[in-house]
Structure formats: C-alpha cells, structure tokens
Design brief:
Blueprint: H1 5-26, H2 33-49, H3 61-76, H4 81-109, E1 119-121, E2 127-129, H5 135-163, E3 166-173, E4 176-184, E5 199-203, H6 215-218, H7 224-230, E6 245-251, E7 257-263, E8 267-271, E9 278-280, E10 284-288, E11 300-302, H8 304-307, E12 314-316
Parallel strand pairs: 4-11, 5-10
Antiparallel strand pairs: 1-2, 3-4, 3-8, 5-11, 6-7, 7-10, 8-9, 9-12
Amino acid sequence: MTVYVDLVFLTNLAVDGTVLLTTAKARRLRPRRRRIALSAGLGAVYAAAMFMASVPYLYSFGAKVLVSAAMVLCAFGYGGPVRFLRLFATFYLVNFATLGGVLGIAFLLRQSGDPWGGMTFTPDGGLLLDWRLQLGLFAASFALSVWLFRSASSSAERTSRLDALVVDVTVTVQGESWTCRGLVDTGNRLYDPLTRVPVLILEASVWKDRLPAGWADRLRGEPADKLIAELGGNGDDGYAWGDRLRLVPYRGVNGNTKLLLAVKPDSVHIGRGGSEARAYNRVLIGLDGGSLSPDGSYRAIVHPDLGMSDSADAIPSQPA
C-alpha cells in the first residue's frame, strides 16, 4: 500500500483546523487564526510522523493525550485549570462526534453481501475493521458531521437560553386558578395607559371555557372592542367576568393603534424552577387569539416588571 505523507499531512491539517474552529465556536471563543493554524500544524505533523519514524511510545495513549493538550494550549492558551479542562473536554467531544459521523456515513454507504466481509480476526483475538473511504467522500462526510454537530450545539444553546427565561405562571380569577409556562420578554413594555399596570399576554385558548362562546377563536381576526360591544353597553350583560374586562390600546408592528382585550385577575403567581413564587395583584391579562410559541413550550408572555424584578406591587407567596 502506498501512503503519501504530504496528503496525510494536508488532510490532518484541514481536519484538525476544522475541529479546533468548531471547538472555539462551541465555547464561544474567537482565537487568532495563526494560533489555530499552528495548533492544527502540530496535529498534522504528529499524524504524518508515524509514517516517517518508528517510535512506539510516540503513539501510546499518554502521548496522544499530551499532543492533544499541547494543541489546545497552542490554540486557546491556558487561562486556569477549569477553563483548560472545559476546552480539552470540548475538543475531544467534537473529535468523537465528527469521527463518529464519518464512520456512520461510511457504514451506511457500504455495500457488501457478506456482513463479515469487512472484518478480520487477528491470531491473538483482535478484530480489524476495514474502512475504505475515498478522500472526496471523507471530506463530504466530515463536513456534514461538523455541520450536524454545530447545528445541534446551537440548538441546545438556544434552548438553554430560552429555558432561563421561562417561568411558571398561575393566574387566579374568582377562586379558580390556571397554570402554564410563560416566557419573560424584556422587550414587552405594555402598560395600561391610565393606571400604568403591566400587561401579561396569555393565549385566549387557556380560558376558552370561561370566555363567551367563540371568543377564543374570534380574537384572531376581530377587534376586541367589537366583542365587548356584543355584551351590552355596560360590558357585563350577565357575563361573570364582565366587570373585569378591559381594553388596552397598543401599537402594532405596522404602527397602527389597536385595542387588546384584557382581564383583571385576582392575582398572578410567578415562580421559576420550583423556587418561591411571587404574587402580583396589580396586573392585567391580555388575551391573544393565536399561539405564542411555535412548539407550545410556553403559553404566556410575561412583562419584565413581573418576571425579572422585585416589583413594589409583589408580595412573597407560596406557589399556588
């Protein structure tokens, strides 16, 4: 078998450089490119050296770990033991993920009538697997594995950031309580213009059984003042929550002023991760006719005054 050392060096240079850049992306670092190139060159030289020198201990487990540590130090610096260990673990995680993706794709594309055709047993009981992968297919498989890893990492990071803003919301009206998940939206600055009471947005479907017939669906396309007018001049007309209904003006994305249907609750309890909840009395519940979350992970948009600060209107309370 003919081995081209220069091809081995260039392949490993590209692979190590990509792995190091993916590691930096996963740890949200921006190292200098020359440090990445130097570190990748170190790994490529180490890979090519096995075909140029016969030094058994050079390719032992300890030597491989030392070379990997040197590559991480060269690319990202030290910065303390905790930082280094996190970078070192991420570097190996990226290596395992991308190599596993390459082997998985190679196995998927492998065509053989004999499942044992690619296996060889050595005299001492060892097992050798024959993985033959053309350079072009290897490059495509490796690129796909890196893309999948980065996509999964980005998705996990977004989910983690979102979870940090998700709270438990319990709304109480006339002795009845409804609990759902809510997202704290720092850009939501909606107040009632007269009382300066913050407005929490809730999917109308949560109260579908407590609203007048059809309101939960009609709120998607019909103005709120039209629905209020149907109840009568005083806004109640026998409806149990009639005296709690409010109309809150707000400015839509197109700049037009609209009216939001809101309900005055008895209280709203907001907690996070089983911690002690806080009870808010001065709050309005604005009703949205659509779905606030594409995946249903939350059904309320929490005003930042309620979900992120210790408002003067809040009093400590046990979770409802």
